[in-house]
Amino acid sequence: MKVIDSENWAWFLFEHEGGLYLDANCNMSAFGYTYMIRLNEKEQAQYTDGGREYLNKLAHDIHYSVPIAKDTSSIYKGRDVSNELTELATEAVKLWREGSNES
How many CB atoms lie within 10 A of CB 30? Predict the structure, then answer.
């Protein structure tokens, strides 16, 4: 897994085994959490067309749909892959930050 891009305090974009994953920084009241989804074909096409601006919108949509709420109707509910990929993502961010500090 590797970091492709990020927006401070909003999201990370990862590549892993040929797939793209968006890890959105969300909160529900005072509770902060991240919600990582694998981009589907439509989302990948929109990212190709819209770049970072599309990812900003997607992260915003994930956050405001509150996919972790019990009674949510979020279209992102059930797509969270954070549990499976947290360790890989944490290591990828660590390596990415170390690499961006080298000049």
Answer: 5
Tens of pLDDT along 27-38?
A: 888 889 999 999
- Could you tell me whether strands 31-38 and 19-28 are parallel, antiparallel, or unpaired per DSSP bridges? antiparallel
Q: For residues 98 and 102, give the distance between their C-alpha atoms in angstroms, rounded to a whole number.
A: 7
Give Dmax (Cα) for the chain: 48
96: tokens are 């990415």
Is 82 exposed, middle or buried, given 0-12, 13-18 or 19+ CB atoms closer than 10 A?
middle
pLDDT digits (tens, 9 = 90+) for 31-79: 899 999 999 999 999 999 999 999 999 999 999 999 999 999 999 999 9
Note the pTM of the prediction, 2 decimals.
0.91
Domain ranges of the chain: 2-100
Number of Cβ within a 10 Å radius of residue 102: 5
Unique residue bearing structure tokens 């797509």:
79
